[in-house]
């Protein structure tokens, strides 16, 4: 991946190109899957897999339970890192930035468009990350909700919210069999101190090639 191979010098447009290629690849079962890393109260990192619910020129959105560990960690330290890794095409994207909660109407719209199986899965786990006696408890809750909402769509649970990661750095990684991987790092111009080998991108971004 040379600088000339970049589809765009705007990292959001570059992401859009790579993400659409991943979605079009039949070998990639879940292209929306991404690792979300947060910071615990004691300063230790915490990471888990979540799904990308959407993205635009501002940032990358995901949906979670307000009672979850990640939501509590983001409230205390509103910064996170996202990592996409599509092993089938040997590509990865790493994103870092500030996290904000999105307006409730965005959460409501997203929830309404989810399959009912996903909606009910959210409803059966109001205290996400908390210990539970057995899986049969979840199965029982699911059976009850399937009967209750057999002919209706379930409402958005009050404990669910959408968040957005507003990036100040986005790195594109293209793996090579020689291990001489290609890495291009985009950062916000105002945040970049090291100006060596710096190239000017678009919309306030600059970028550099990194050693593998």
UniProtKB/TrEMBL annotation:
Q: Which Pfam families match?
A: PNP_phzG_C, PNPOx_N
Q: Which cofactors, by name?
A: FMN
* Pathway recorded for this protein: Cofactor metabolism; pyridoxal 5'-phosphate salvage; pyridoxal 5'-phosphate from pyridoxine 5'-phosphate: step 1/1; Cofactor metabolism; pyridoxal 5'-phosphate salvage; pyridoxal 5'-phosphate from pyridoxamine 5'-phosphate: step 1/1
Q: Which domain of life is it from?
A: Eukaryota
Signal peptide interval: none
Keyword Flavoprotein listed: yes
- Write down the EC number: 1.4.3.5
Specify the Pyridoxine 5'-phosphate oxidase dimerisation C-terminal domain's residue ranges. Answer: 162-212
Residues covered by the Pyridoxamine 5'-phosphate oxidase N-terminal domain: 28-146
Q: Which PROSITE patterns match?
A: PYRIDOX_OXIDASE
Give UniProt keywords alphabetically: Flavoprotein, FMN, Oxidoreductase
Output the PANTHER family linked to this UniProt entry.
PYRIDOXINE-5'-PHOSPHATE OXIDASE, PYRIDOXINE-5-PHOSPHATE OXIDASE
Name the family the entry cites: Belongs to the pyridoxamine 5'-phosphate oxidase family.
Describe the function of this protein.
Catalyzes the oxidation of either pyridoxine 5'-phosphate (PNP) or pyridoxamine 5'-phosphate (PMP) into pyridoxal 5'-phosphate (PLP).
State what protein this is by name.
Answer: pyridoxal 5'-phosphate synthase
């Amino acid at each position: 991946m040379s600088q000339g191979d970049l589809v765009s010098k705007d990292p959001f447009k570059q992401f859009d190109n790579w993400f659409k290629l991943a979605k079009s690849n039949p070998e990639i079962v879940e292209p929306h899957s991404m690792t979300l890393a947060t910071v615990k109260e004691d300063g230790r990192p915490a990471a888990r897999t979540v799904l990308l619910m959407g993205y635009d020129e501002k940032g990358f959105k995901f949906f979670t339970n307000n009672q979850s560990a990640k939501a509590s960690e983001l409230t205390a330290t509103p910064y996170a890192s996202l990592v996409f890794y599509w092993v089938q095409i040997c590509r990865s994207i790493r994103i870092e930035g500030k996290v904000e909660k999105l307006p409730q109407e965005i959460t409501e719209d997203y929830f309404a468009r989810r399959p009912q199986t996903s909606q009910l899965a959210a409803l059966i786990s109001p205290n996400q990350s908390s210990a539970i006696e057995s899986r049969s408890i979840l199965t029982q809750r699911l059976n009850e909700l399937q009967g209750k909402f057999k002919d209706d769509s379930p409402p958005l649970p009050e404990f669910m919210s959408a968040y957005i990661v507003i990036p100040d750095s986005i790195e594109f990684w293209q793996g090579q069999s020689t291990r001489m991987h290609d890495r291009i790092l985009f950062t916000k111009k105002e945040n970049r101190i090291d100006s060596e080998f710096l190239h000017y991108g678009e919309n306030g971004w600059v970028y550099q090639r990194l050693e593998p």
